[in-house]
Specification:
62% helix; mainly alpha; elongated
Length: 163
């Protein structure tokens, strides 16, 4: 197999550190680099619909939040691992475009619920459909069997990192 960016990096590190110490980077550096490629492709696909990855995350969370497609901002930012300020700015942008609406929480006088609108559902479906083709392109170098094996290994790795 041809040497890739990670191999070149590890060769450079081998000059100053024992190669065995750097072995975890065989995996982690490649995962990080793949993540950058995925992010770039997703931003391009979602950008065609005026969305970014974070906004698609919010719309997606609402899409699957039950029959009313509503969540509190707190549930949203905790579920998406964002700050309170981060979710507020995303919600402001999405609300201005008519993709979400905020309403009073009927069970909590001080609370607010965020609801996905029909326009939000539609743009989410379009953006995800456009991105699906890009995701397939990213995996085109792998056979279906290799994709399944990789998915299993990544799932196992992630399970050890998340509760």
């Amino acid at each position: 197999m041809v040497q890739d960016w990670t191999d070149a990096l590890l060769d450079q590190w081998a000059a100053v550190r024992p190669r065995q110490e750097m072995e975890p980077y065989q995996v982690t550096a490649r995962i990080s680099r793949i993540g950058l490629h995925i992010a770039r492709h997703q931003e391009e696909a979602f950008g065609r619909y005026g969305l970014n990855r974070g906004e698609v995350g919010v719309l997606g969370a609402l899409r699957f939040a039950g029959p009313k497609q509503q969540l509190s901002p707190t549930r949203l930012f905790k579920g998406l691992m964002l700050s309170s300020a981060g979710i507020t700015s995303r919600l402001d942008r999405l609300e201005r475009r008519g993709y979400v609406k905020r309403t009073r929480d009927p069970d909590d006088r001080r609370g607010v619920l965020v609801e996905l609108t029909g326009a939000g559902r539609e743009v989410l479906n379009q953006a995800v459909t456009a991105n699906t083709g890009r995701e397939k392109e990213l995996l085109a170098n792998l056979t279906k069997q290799e994709q399944k094996a990789l998915a299993g290994l990544l799932k196992k790795l992630l399970a050890g990192l998340e509760p």
